[in-house]
Every structure is written in structure tokens, then in C-alpha cells.
Amino acid sequence: MKRVWVSNPSWPNHKSVFTSAGLEVREYAYYDAANHALDFDGLLASLNEAQAGDVVLFHGCCHNPTGIDPTLDQWQQLAQLSVEKGWLTAVRFRLPGLRPPVWKKMLKGYALLLLYIKSCWSPAPTRKTLACTTSASAPALWSPRIKRL
């Protein structure tokens, strides 16, 4: 693993974290500012350049900073492309509670399950999908503990 793909735009820290770890950071198209929508055609065109062994980082829900997520059909297409290209897929989940609960759970669960199942059929050695989450954006999980310090 030498190269990581992050969306453009993305959370600003992503690039610096990966660069400081010695990884090359590439960007894939994500946001269509003119239409305030996902640039899915641009996203696919960008990720067609990703190679086997690259890491592709997705925001599983509530993309930061746009708030725009792929549809379920688009997640299916991304999962299929990940199998064809042999990436290591990383899905970052953040901002719990910003989507209506039922939709949020369905989208998070569907995206992760779909990417994981598809990765099982991808060529070795890239049969992997990673899920990352944080409680930093969920003060209800950590604020009582911080107050006790």
C-alpha cells in the first residue's frame, strides 16, 4: 500500500495524515458545485485510474464537507469497480445523528455490507474492506468522561 485516494473535497486532515505516514495521496472527483450534487461520472473516471493495492477512502454517510452521499445504486457500482480494480476499500463513518435514523442506519449498513461482500470476490491480495468510525463527533459518547477528568 503506497497510494491513498481521497475525495475532492474531503476533510482537510485526511491528506496530512496519509502524507505524514509516507503515502502518496491522490484525489478523486466528488462534488459538482454548480449543481450541488455528487459528480458521480467524474468520481468513476477518477477511480478508473486507481490500481490494485491502492486504498480508496469513502465517507460512509454524511460526506464531509458536502453532506452528499452516493445512492444505493451508486454504492453498488462503486463496489463492483472496487472488485474489478482490486483496491483496498476503507469506509469512514462520522457525524452520527445528522441523517434521519432509519435512513442513516440503512445506508451505512448497506454500503459497508455491499463493499465487504464484493471484496470477498476480489482478486487476492486485496480481499479487504476496512470500516473506521470515531466518537469524536458524538459528544454524548465522550463528554461525561471528559467532565470527570
Automatic annotation (TrEMBL):
GO biological process: L-phenylalanine biosynthetic process from chorismate via phenylpyruvate
Domain Aminotransferase class I/classII large: 3-89
Gene Ontology molecular functions: identical protein binding; L-aspartate:2-oxoglutarate aminotransferase activity; L-tyrosine-2-oxoglutarate transaminase activity; pyridoxal phosphate binding
A matching Pfam family: Aminotran_1_2
EC number(s) reported in the record: 2.6.1.1
One GO term describing the cellular component: cytosol
Gene3D superfamilies reported in the protein's UniProt record: Type I PLP-dependent aspartate aminotransferase-like (Major domain) (3.40.640.10)
Keyword annotations from UniProtKB, A to Z: Aminotransferase, Pyridoxal phosphate, Transferase
The protein's enzyme class: transferase
Subunit composition and interactions: Homodimer.
UniProt protein name: Aspartate aminotransferase
Organism: Klebsiella pneumoniae
Lineage: Bacteria, Pseudomonadati, Pseudomonadota, Gammaproteobacteria, Enterobacterales
Gene: aspC_3
